[in-house]
Structures are given as C-alpha cells and as structure tokens.
C-alpha cells in the first residue's frame, strides 16, 4: 500500500457515520448488508447514507454488488488487512514480530490487564 492510498482510506474514515458504517460491515463479514438495512440499523437517513457509502466505496474500504433492486455492501477485508499491515510494517525498526501480537484478542486482554479500558 502506498501513502496516498492510506491517506484516502484514513480520510474516508474521518466521519463518525462512515466509521460506524464500516465497523458495522466488518461485523457482518461476507454477508454484508443492503443500504436500507444499514440505514435502519444506524438510524441514518438513506439520503445521507448514500453520500457516506459512496465515499467508503471510492476509498476501496467497501465493495458494492447489485442484487436485483438493491445494492449489497460488504467490507473489503483484504483492504482492511492491508491498512493494518501498512500501519505496522515499520514497527520495531521493521521487525513487527518484536512488537508483539497485534490481534484484537491479545490487545484487548492487555488493555483489560492494564486498566486502560475495553475493546
């Protein structure tokens, strides 16, 4: 991943609504959701939601597939992993293995142990 792609992705997540949409689609995995389901789940008007879905699609964080009259949105999981790799590839002087386990389960358990909050 190059720096410009990363910047585009971070900019697309700089909206609370887009971040909520993306996290919702991550939870849904490969099943994804149609726009109406996203709108009702997050209580976002559909006219407002379409603007945010377009920004996330343009950044490559989500994919859209036509299903009859509806469009199904899915998180682009390989892109998410690419962003994580981009953020961590120079960790500990380019040897991320020295930095520890970056999995959510490990990070969450470390945060609970140190009292730094929840995941």
List keywords for this structure.
119 residues, mainly alpha, Arc Repressor Mutant, subunit A, 3 strands
Describe the protein:
The protein is mainly alpha-helical and 119 residues long. It folds into two domains: 3-76, Winged helix-like DNA-binding domain superfamily/Winged helix DNA-binding domain (Arc Repressor Mutant, subunit A); 89-114, no CATH class. Helix content is 61%, strand content 12%. It contains seven helices and three strands, in the order H-H-E-H-H-E-E-H-H-H. It has helices at 3-12, 16-28, 35-42, 46-59, 77-88, 91-94, 104-114, and strands spanning 33-34, 62-67, 70-75. A hairpin with a 2-residue loop joins strand 2 and strand 3. The longest helix has 14 residues, at 46-59. The two termini are 26 Å apart.
> How does the overall form come out from the CA principal axes?
elongated
Question: How many distinct folded domains?
Answer: 2
Strand content: 5-15%
Structural class: mainly alpha
Q: How are the strands of the largest sheet arranged?
A: 1-3-2
TL;DR of this structure?
This protein is mainly α.
